[in-house]
Amino acid sequence: MKYLEPESLTAFKNYNVVQFRKDLIAGIIVGVVALPLSLAFAIAAGVSPEKGLITAIIFGFIVSVLGGTRTQIGGPTGAFVMIVAGVYTQFGLSGMIVASIMGGIIQIVLGLLKLGNIFKFIPYPIMIGLNTGIAISIFSSQIKDALGLSMGINELGEKIPMDLPLNLLDKWVVYFKNITTIEPVTLAVTVATIIVILAAPYIIKKFPPYLFAVLVITIISYALKHFAGVDGITTIGDRFSLEGSLKMEEFVFPNMETLEQLFPAAITIAAMGAIVSIISCSVADGLTGERHDSNMELVAEGIGNIVTPMFGGIPATGAIARTMTGISNGGRTPLVGIVHCIVVLLILLFLGSLAQHIPTACLAGMLIIVAYNMSNIPGLKALMKCPKSDVAVLLTTIGLTVIFNISVAVEVGLLMAVLLFIRRVSDNTQISVLRDEINVTSGIDATGHEEKLNLKHGVEVFELDGPFFFGMANKFDEEMRIMRDAPSVRILRMRKVPFIDSTGLHNLEIFIDNSKKENIRVILSGVRPNVLQTLQKAGMDERIGKDYIFDNINGAVDKANTLV
Description:
Blueprint: H1 17-44, H2 50-66, E1 74-75, H3 81-112, H4 124-141, H5 143-147, H6 168-177, H7 184-203, H8 209-226, H9 236-239, H10 256-288, H11 294-307, E2 317-318, H12 320-328, H13 335-350, H14 360-375, H15 377-383, H16 388-403, H17 406-428, E3 430-434, E4 437-439, E5 452-454, E6 459-465, H18 470-481, E7 489-496, H19 502-517, E8 521-525, H20 529-537, H21 540-544, E9 549-550, H22 553-563
Parallel strand pairs: 6-7, 7-8, 8-9
Antiparallel strand pairs: 1-2, 3-6, 4-5
């Protein structure tokens, strides 16, 4: 696959009518599935519901046309709900637009620098922790609409609206304080929605469960509200004014101080978008047998996150559930995503007014199911049986996501994972000191047929096992400090050193200089080509002496014994 070549340029070679029919049907189904989810994610993020549809249309189209995979479906997802909610609450519409544009620029830069594949190496505990933390946050944000909570009744007999704090713990404090204001009818709508979603696969197998629930609950709620006079059913139209059109948003570009405050959110948008999208691409590859281009996908998503907010959309990424829906219904080309966008656009333009009759409690019930699915209970149970370090990363990531925000959780989680990885590598690196004789085993620096080589008195061999990075460098330095008798020659056997970093070079330099001061000759043995190249660039070969660097232990021992 060529670098930065959209899959849409090659996906239609040898295309036929049969596949076109499959892609068309899959696209229509995905568009129908995207409708309720896009509305729900937008409302959960604190913006008007049509912004979710606009996101599915514009972002989805850009990702399908410019993306690095044939089957990816882009649009609003649960991963971005709390990010958007936080930015929108604190900085308003302008701040959200700017944060999304900044995040898009970062994604484009990552793609152009060919850094897309690094997101495949995000530790599993962090991914599960983020998903679980986001799931808890989404669930918590829906309690108000799911139970119909309010601050009470005013003198006119009207419910006093409940303003929710951004912090999750504060939300629950408000919920418990006003738990007596539960609206039974609203709770019944929420429970009914959950039951219908869970029962839908058994009732009507090939119909999207979420859309089936929305249709059934909306029709029943409309009848109860308008014909039976039942109170307590709040709909989208009661809270939002839907606009069935696409137009450019007007926003005020923020000052430098606000840009600095938005930068962490932009980093989170870029990172979360990349992680979720590339996971989706990888899963799709496993089902279709294709190979995606992570870098092209990042560039496409970056463009999407720059353009979409300008038309009123929100930050988005690849949607795993919708991508899997397209594939499972026979979709194999970007046409699926394009058709899905057209379906959502037609709904926005011609049927958008009908969405105002959807009960908010119905969407809350949908998001509760989404939150449960995101939490990945089996994955959590499996991780709790893993080493304590992995459990610590998992719980820390969940806790920081819930208590603070996703940005903090990603930063601290990655830092913990890196530090724990370094400790594990350091614990597995070994430095052994050999005198009198050395066993010669098969390896990069072993030649001849001798099983043992005799070392003359005054010759020591230091066997280094592991990367000579700052972790081993400190061990090496400590080993040197506890040496009692100074030998005449020191051989560093480096056959098991895959690389050396700047700290390792610095410690090696100190080791050589101190050895010279004590009139001790240093010899290197079994230096791998890449390590030798690093030493040469740093000028270490000149400092040691080119005649004292050997590619095998036999030559190094012969040289050492001769010097003694």
